[in-house]
Prior knowledge:
globular, disordered N terminus, about 5% strand, DNA-binding
Amino acid sequence: MQKRGVLMKAPxxxxxxxxxxxxxxxxxxxFTDARLRECGASVARVRAMRxxxxxxxxxxxxxxxxxxxxxxxxxxxxxxxxxxxxxxxRVRHPVDRRAFLLTLTEVGRERHxxxxxxxxEALAAATRGLDAxxxxxxxxxxxxxxxxxxx
Amino acid sequence: MQKRGVLMKAPxxxxxxxxxxxxxxxxxxxFTDARLRECGASVARVRAMRxxxxxxxxxxxxxxxxxxxxxxxxxxxxxxxxxxxxxxxRVRHPVDRRAFLLTLTEVGRERHxxxxxxxxEALAAATRGLDAxxxxxxxxxxxxxxxxxxx
DNA sequence: CGCACATAGTGAGTATGCTCAGTACTATGT
DNA sequence: ACATAGTACTGAGCATACTCACTATGTGCG
Lengths: 151, 151
């Protein structure tokens, strides 16, 4: 990763909270992605595989989009790349012919386990300065923001 | 913005804190960008214009990158688009012929003020559920994560 | 039944982030 | 002075997010 300067305060803005939130997320994603790239994964790919691995039933594209909290088009792109590498299989829905059912392939399941381990390690490293109470508090604060913007 | 389902817990992961951080930021950016797009701006563009407006001296591309906390290439892209619309001027540095000096044009200054007002309103709306102590606590928690990933 | 509307997914195009490689220039050390 | 190292920026190309428009299909109502 490229070396960068410290996050600077914007003198024209009295409230840089949101700026810090953006900046923190960009760095955290870069940090995690760098580790995941070594095993051919990424934050978006791990998240998608995690949902597929955890679901007892095959998921539709739509289901996956909602679980990931991203637009349908974004899911198409991620699934395209996972399918190209043979990690995910798209099968036509037996009843609803508009839809696909997604499942992890055997290779996909293996890759998911590796990537999940790397991901867990990265997340633990990123949040090593926070104790259980801090994490809970952070979750609460983030939830307040989500509520405000999802109205 | 597209309607989406509630952020779902990933059953395979015991710690979804980071997932929530990513998801919250994606939504917050979408929320803010939607408001800014109405006056032809965006989060990245406002941030860049803010730094230029606040600086008493013209900035180099490099300075701006560091202030924004993004890669040099990202700054090139943002400045390209601002320059194309006549909001920012790139002038060759009088001494260091590798560098440019960036300044807001008159139009750029006007647009910045409009966008800044919209931005402030959006940020206030997004964080309306947080009191001063909450904001300070959130800032601290984010700073802990940034320290952990910037080592 | 048949029309209207809704839903599932993707193509096209955009924005914002990244890396790596390359060009042009500056700075430094012997 | 000259080679070497470092810096400033951009081109090329990728990843992940978005919207809008489109096709194909399902659903529901008169």
